[in-house]
Amino acid sequence: MDRSSETPKHVEPRVLSIQSHVVHGNVGNKCATFPLQLLGLEVDSVNSVQFSNHTGYPVFKGDIFNGSHLQQLVSGLESNGLLKGYTHLLTGYIGSESLLQAVVDVLRRLRELNPDITYVCDPVMGDDGKLYVKQEMVELFRTQMVPLASIMVPNQYEASLLIGSPVSTAAEAMAACQKLHALGPHSVVITSLTVPDDPDSLMLLASTTKPQLGGASVSKLQMCIPRIPAYFTGTGDLLAALLLARIDQYPGDLAQAVEMAVAGLQAVLLDTAAHCGVAALSGERTAAVSAARELRLVANQRHIVSPVVTLRCTPFSSGSS
Q1: Which of 92, 108, 180, 190 has minimal Cβ neighbours within 10 Å of its Cβ?
Q2: For the chain, first and last CA: distance in Å?
Q3: What are the distances in angstroms from CA 168 to CA 128, 129, 142, 153, 156?
């Protein structure tokens, strides 16, 4: 029987998400799983840590897991034939060398089962010049994770760590994207860049080597994002998950994927800022302030699914500051 004209079987997207977990609040897997499910992706979560709450609170308790923890879980999945269904791997905070190496091993096994699996790497190493992980982890991310990644979503500081040189301007950020492309990832989104002469805004820079529906002129993008006067934890985790979902939804249209992801994020942040009132700007590090600033995902689920897009990507200009 000739099956050449049959429609290929649709593969339901399923994400293996390896990152931190908290009992209370929304960071790491708590920030990624629900939005991904809302957007139609099945999610299986592995926790790199399990804490009572995020580390911005005065006190947190819990455990940090090592590579053997991940290996045991994956062994159980494989014994039941459950590894072959993954279309995406998403990683966030990885706090130990053994866990990072285990992630590398798991990804290689997943690629044996599905060579087309998309690996979205959020290289959670630090922000605003502060390192969250041991210095040795930076080199491991650079040499082990970047070459295997399909999509990288670093912030400004993490991008500078990965390429080993400062990223202070939009031109330097786009140059960093090109350096990262050369190491492996086909798409790079630098999620936040502080521009010295515009303190009220952040810039997002995105670049891809994948063919785009709009042609080569939209393979390098920039977006100016008004800064929300508040401090939140988990914004990078949420944006990485939204980017994964939207890039899967809009293959060949990175601009639309970024616009939809940012729109969903901004809706959550604006509502959370309005809801927590004066706590949004408080310099206090109390439990009450931290709790008030937890991202309101459930309350904003309709905005995650169907956000109103007001911020647009534009083709990157080499004259950008």
Answers
A1: 108
A2: 61
A3: 12, 12, 19, 17, 8
Can you list the positions of beta strands (E) in 128-182? 130-131, 151-152
Q: What is the pLDDT of residue 5?
A: 46
Q: Distance (Å, rounded) from C-alpha 117 to C-alpha 150?
A: 9
Per-position DSSP letters for 34-103, written without gaps between them: HHHHHTT-EEEEEEEEEESS-TTSS---EEE--HHHHHHHHHHHHHTT-STT-SEEEE----SHHHHHHH
C-alpha–C-alpha distance, residues 192 and 254, integer Å: 17
Structure tokens at 60: 């947190």
Structure tokens at 33: 């799983």
For helices 67-79 and 97-113, give the axis angle rounded to 10 degrees: 20
E strands of 153-253, at which residues? 187-194, 201-208, 220-226
Give this prediction's pTM.
0.94
Entry field: residues in the chain: 321
Best CA proximity match to 180, nearest among 203, 147, 155, 133: 147
Active site residue 44: no
Q: Annotated catalytic residue: which of 122, 237, 248, 253?
A: 237
Distance CA 204, CA 225 (A): 7
The token pair at 263 is 């729109």
Give the residue from 116, 165, 159 showing the smallest Cα distance to 141. Answer: 159
List, in sequence order, every residue forming a beta bridge with 90; answer none if it has no partner: 17, 120
pLDDT for position 320: 64
pLDDT tens profile 152-168: 999 999 999 999 999 99
Residues of the chain with pLDDT under 70: 1-10, 319-321
